[in-house]
Design brief:
The complex is a heterodimer of chains A (266) and B (300). Helix content of chain A is 33%, strand content 18%. By secondary structure, chain A is α/β, with parallel strands linked by helices. In chain A, the strands form two sheets. Chain A has a six-stranded mixed β-sheet, covered by helices on one side. Chain B is globular. Classes of the chains: A alpha/beta (266), B alpha/beta (300).
Chain lengths: 266, 300
């Protein structure tokens, strides 16, 4: 039987909540004012931020349609690490602190909810077929950075995924590429952590159907100082709160390709 | 230990019939063995016994590299790497690098000794024009010049460091790649932290460090080194091995992984890339290191 695919005209999409309930609340309020028909989350609800259980009531109450990220998969399956795919010891040191904190404070019920999320979603935006994944359509924790994702690979993902638009997250930095054949790839960014540009705001994406697909990156300003103080009270590393306050990444840097790394402070 | 003009010790022409195999999942990484085993250094631990003499594995012609790049683009490759020997000995290295960067993010594994001011300028210009990232991986085996030079040859430390600084000054953010060959001399110290602190102290504000294990092949290969059996791989996900998603174009054909490039036992095709998309035999002692350490030759 053919899968029934919902059709929309205008949607909001975000990734990487990273336990940032304050940014999630601000983002959802912003999206409500933009006439979107549905709101989608591309996964990674936990990690980095404080009080992981605070994001779940917001996601459920507002009917956010989510897929599973690698962090969600790890929490749901009781894995020993977040599966972010870091390779160097410093990144893994901070990733471990974050994962152990989040694992211990995410309720069994919420872990079960994460475990029930689908790996991918399909929908239509007008006539365009949209495929949503967390990392890449083939690997949940594959990093698709703007400067390290060949157009030839995107064409392959779109062809094999039978899609005209690919949406992903996982890296933490947004980008959009319109391919010569009229298809699109969009990394929708994350709302849990600023994107290493020296600004404290975070980002989500609004997509609108039309003769030309409209892709708008929307900045979200939220009470980041309150978040930083909550993180301090929870004993999370000062390197994390520095990122919240300054907008510069201090950890998880080694996977950045040279172009993205050179734009940051560290 | 063997001489620079000899074949590596472990060089069976055909893998044993009972060798375990790794599945081919996808072509994520194309390696171009551009200079074969032709190098201006002669490191004691070199995985393919490269050196300045007549190379046992020849450099490849530019058209072979270009054909591979085009084919890899059509196959949806994610990354391209140039290795050798020393890639910057190849007369067309910069032109090939430009071609590769039009297709995918591209990395060069180099000893850094040929990156003078003019070469650093040329690389910086290439990187600026490219949409994809250019990564230069410079090998350095210890933060102590004397220790490094005992492994890599007299004067290699200062020349590599000069290259690292030149690239860094131009915003290229080189990845310093070190093997664990000299780590025994620093018992108790974290190797990654030692390199990172060393680079920061020399003004490298965004230090990038990759640590590699030492492999039992090339000049360190021994007859009788252990090999993998099916029993060793019980419960192990073979899809994690880099030969499940990498292929290497070098003299003589397409090989399963950059560690074994040039060895007939690791050759999967004498034609194009697509013809090499088959299970790879895990027949070599180096495969033991990959399984045990989970290492990859990729940047991350």
């Amino acid at each position: 039987m053919q899968e029934r695919i919902a059709e929309y005209r205008r949607i909001a999409v975000f990734g990487g909540v990273y336990s940032n309930a304050l940014a999630l609340e601000a983002m959802l309020a912003d999206a409500r004012g933009r006439d979107v028909e549905a709101v989608f989350c591309l996964g990674d609800m936990g990690g980095f931020g404080p009080h992981p259980d605070r994001v779940f009531p917001l996601l459920r109450a507002t009917g956010v349609l989510a897929i599973q990220g690698n962090y969600d998969e790890s929490l749901a399956q009781g894995k020993t690490d977040c599966g972010c795919g870091y390779t160097d010891p410093r990144d893994n040191h901070f990733a471990r602190i974050s994962y152990e904190y989040t694992f211990a404070r995410t309720s069994t019920e919420n872990k079960r909810w994460l475990g029930g999320l689908p790996a991918r979603r399909r929908l239509r935006l007008g006539t365009r077929r949209v495929l949503m994944s967390h990392g890449s359509p083939r690997v949940i924790n594959e990093f698709l950075w703007e400067s390290a994702t060949p157009t030839g690979l995107l064409k392959r993902f779109l062809r094999e995924g039978e899609a005209d638009v690919l949406l992903c997250t996982h890296t933490g930095i947004k980008w959009h590429r319109a391919l010569p054949d009229g298809t699109h790839a969009v990394n929708v960014g994350v709302i849990g952590r600023p994107e290493n540009d020296g600004s404290s705001n975070v980002w989500y994406t609004v997509l609108t159907a039309g003769p030309d697909l409209s892709v708008e990156f929307i900045p979200v300003h939220y009470e980041y100082e309150t978040l930083a103080r909550q993180m301090e009270q929870e004993g999370l590393p000062p390197e994390f709160t520095e990122t919240v306050r300054t907008g510069w990444w201090t950890t998880c840097l080694e996977n950045l390709p040279s172009k993205e790394r050179s734009r940051g402070k560290f | 230990m063997i001489g620079p003009m000899s074949l590596p010790v472990i060089n069976w022409t055909a893998p044993p019939a009972d060798a375990p195999r790794a599945p081919f999942l996808r072509l994520s990484t194309l390696w171009i063995q551009i200079t074969g085993t032709w190098c201006n250094l002669e490191c004691v631990h070199c995985i393919n016994a490269s050196g300045p003499g007549d190379p046992w594995l020849k450099p490849i012609r530019p058209e072979v590299a270009r054909r591979a790049i085009r084919e890899a683009e059509d196959l949806g490759v994610k990354e391209i790497y140039f290795t050798g020997g020393e890639p910057f000995l190849h007369a067309e290295m910069l032109a090939l690098l430009r071609d590769a960067l039009e297709v995918a993010p591209t990395t060069v594994l180099t000893n850094g000794t040929l990156i003078d001011e003019a070469m650093a300028d040329a690389l910086a210009a290439l990187a600026r024009r490219a949409s994809y990232s250019l990564e230069i991986r410079v090998s350095l085996d210890d933060t102590d010049p004397g220790t490094n030079d005992r492994v890599r040859g007299a004067g290699s430390f200062s020349r590599a460091m000069a290259a690292i600084v030149r690239l860094n000054d131009r915003g290229l953010l080189p990845i310093v790649t070190a093997t664990e060959i000299a780590s025994a001399e620093h018992a108790g110290e974290g190797m990654y932290e030692r390199f990172r602190d060393f680079l920061i102290a020399r003004g490298i504000e965004k230090p990038r460090v990759k640590i590699m294990p030492v492999f039992a092949l090339g000049r360190l290969g021994q007859e009788g080194d252990p090999r993998l059996t099916e029993a060793d791989l019980t419960g192990f996900d073979r899809g994690l091995l880099q030969c499940s998603e990498s292929r290497v174009v070098g003299d003589g054909g397409v090989y399963a992984c950059p560690i074994l490039a040039g060895l007939p036992g690791a050759r999967l095709s004498q034609a194009g890339l697509k013809e090499s998309f088959a299970d790879a035999p895990l027949y070599h002692p180096a495969c033991v290191t990959c399984v045990q350490t989970g290492m990859t030759c990729k940047n991350g």
